[in-house]
Amino acid sequence: MKFRESLGYVGVVTGSLTFVPQVYQAWVSKSVGDLSIWMILILLLNVSIWLIYGIMGKDKAMILANTIIMVLSLLMLYFKLTF
Amino acid sequence: MKFRESLGYVGVVTGSLTFVPQVYQAWVSKSVGDLSIWMILILLLNVSIWLIYGIMGKDKAMILANTIIMVLSLLMLYFKLTF
Hints:
The structure is a homodimer. By secondary structure, chain A is an all-alpha fold. Chain A has a single domain, classed as Monooxygenase. Helices cover 82% and strands 0% of the residues of chain A. Chain A contains four helices and no strands. In chain A, helix 1 packs parallel to helix 4 and helix 3 runs antiparallel to helix 4. Chain A is elongated. The N and C termini of chain A lie far apart (45 Å). Chains A and B meet through helix 1, helix 2 and helix 3 of A and helix 1, helix 2 and helix 3 of B.
C-alpha cells in the first residue's frame, strides 16, 4: 500500500474519532451552552455531502467514516436541543 | 463538470465553514468550558493528515480547505487554553 493511501486511512479513522470526545463530554456534563448550533448544523450538511459523494464513488472507507460522523453530529444536535 | 465533482467542491466549502461559527461564538462569549479539548486535538491531528494528503496529491481544493480548518482549529485550541 502506498504511503498516501495509508495516510488516507489514518485520516478516515481520526476523522471518525474527532467528535467522540465531544459527544462524551456533552453526555457526561449535560452542558452544551458553549457548543455552536451552527457548527453542528453545518457539520451535518457537510457530512451529508461527503456521504453522498462516498456512496456515488462506492468509497467504503468514506461511507463508513461519514456515517459515524453523521451519527455523532445527530447526537450533538440532540444534546444541544435537549440539555 | 460532473455532479460528483461539483458536490466535492460544495463539500470543501461547507467543510471550511464548519468551525467558523464555533470560533466566533467562543471569541464573543469567551466561554469554552463545554468544548472538548480532545475534539480540538484530534481535529488538529486529522486536519494535518488531510493537509499532507492534499499536498502529496497536489489537490488545491483539499489544501485550501484543510489550511482554513487548521487555522480555525488552532484558534479554538488557543481560546480553550486561554479563556
